[in-house]
């Protein structure tokens, strides 16, 4: 599983100009089952996306295709982790440690 952390690198007005395209991009990755959750940081300095079911190389390609990244209004920090413990609501995405 991956935590995709976005940090805005441009004024919020520039981010807003690309927001509709970013939301459409999010919707596509939710539809494919890769994205589990996403939202804005508080304060609004970026966002966070939880992703799964892809390799690190694939998640890096996904991040690079974000309209925010293409427009140069954000930078990504991607952290991989193994979700070995979850709430019962997230049991379907629970992972096991490799042998």
Quick structural summary:
The protein has helices at 12-31, 56-65, 67-70, and strands at 2-8, 35-40, 46-51, 74-80. The chain is α+β, with helices and mostly antiparallel strands.
Written account of the structure:
- The chain is of the alpha+beta class.
- It has helices at residues 12-31, 56-65, 67-70, and strands at 2-8, 35-40, 46-51, 74-80.
- A 4-stranded antiparallel β-sheet has the order 2-3-1-4, covered by helices on one side.
- Strand 2 and strand 3 (46-51) form a beta hairpin.
- The radius of gyration is 14 Å and the shape is elongated.
- The mean pLDDT is 96.
Q: How many alpha or pi helices? A: 3
Computed CA radius of gyration, to the nearest angstrom = 14 Å
Secondary structure: number of strands: 4
Q: Name the overall outline.
A: elongated
* Average pLDDT figure: 96
Q: Return residue spans where pLDDT drops below 50 for at least 5 consecutive residues.
A: none
Structural class: alpha+beta
Main pleated sheet: 4 strands, antiparallel
Helicity range of the residues?
A: 25-40%
What fraction of residues sit in β-strands? 25-35%
Order of helices and strands: EHEEHHE
Distance between the termini: 17 Å
Q: Could you give the order of strands across the largest sheet? A: 2-3-1-4
Properties at a glance:
4-stranded antiparallel beta sheet, single chain, 99 residues
Break the fold down into its secondary structure elements and pairings.
Elements: E1 2-8, H1 12-31, E2 35-40, E3 46-51, H2 56-65, H3 67-70, E4 74-80
Antiparallel strand pairs: 1-3, 1-4, 2-3
């Amino acid at each position: 599983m991956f935590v995709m952390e976005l940090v805005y690198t441009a004024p919020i007005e520039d981010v807003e100009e690309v927001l509709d395209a970013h939301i459409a991009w999010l919707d596509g990755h939710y539809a494919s089952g890769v994205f589990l959750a996403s939202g804005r940081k508080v304060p609004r300095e970026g966002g966070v996306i939880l992703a799964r079911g892809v390799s690190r190389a694939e998640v890096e390609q996904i991040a690079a295709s974000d309209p925010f990244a293409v427009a140069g209004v954000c930078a990504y920090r991607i952290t991989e982790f193994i979700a070995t413990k979850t709430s019962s609501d997230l049991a379907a995405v629970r992972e096991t440690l490799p042998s």
